[in-house]
# Entry
Amino acid sequence: EIVLTQSPATLSLSPGERATLSCRASQSVGSYLAWYQQKPGQAPRLLIYDASNRATGVPARFSGSGSGGTDFTLTISSLEPEDFAVYYCQQRDNWPPRLTFGGGTKVEIK
Amino acid sequence: EVQLVESGGGLVQPGGSLRLSCAASGFTFSTYWMSWVRQAPGKGLEWVANIKGDGTQKYYVHSVEGRFTISRANAENSLYLQMSSLRAEDTALYYCARGPTGYRVDYWGQGTLVTVSS
# Structure
């Protein structure tokens, strides 16, 4: 079973600052990693898929990258007030197609 | 516009049963895998189950195998989750979601709350 570990658990930053979120997989997931944003009282929203592709309508300040199939980063280049939320990474087993989520990183206003 | 609307949540006693529904619209439902994902109060996301577009393949997280059954009615654009032998640890907001599409889930409903308590 692949485990996704996100760090840090909480990131305290100010609007305009750069946010760097990490997701580490216990074994290679290739480039098949997704990122979601969840605001309080709302459903998750897909931000990034296949490690680096922005979903429809996602602003360009969000970017994703990966290295070696196990280390992935979500970067928010300049935080807007609406970006303060919890972010989750997710992978899918090749077969059967079971999904796994990381524990989440909360980006809070400093 | 893709829309997913869950219903059927509520308060149920330990050992009881509940059936969740998800009404889908805005896409060709029968061609997509669909999933249920849950979120316990104040906790993270946990995938529960998914089902292939034609209903022939179904998979579950180990903790619900034998207790939960995912199904779909493509003629009605509906997804279901039959839950039995419910436990306190099943208390969560249950989301209906489209996917996996490739390796991601691309649309989510707003969730329906299941509370298991005596």
Notes: The mean pLDDT of chain A is 97. The first strand of chain A starts at residue 4 and ends at 7. Chain A has no helices and eleven strands.
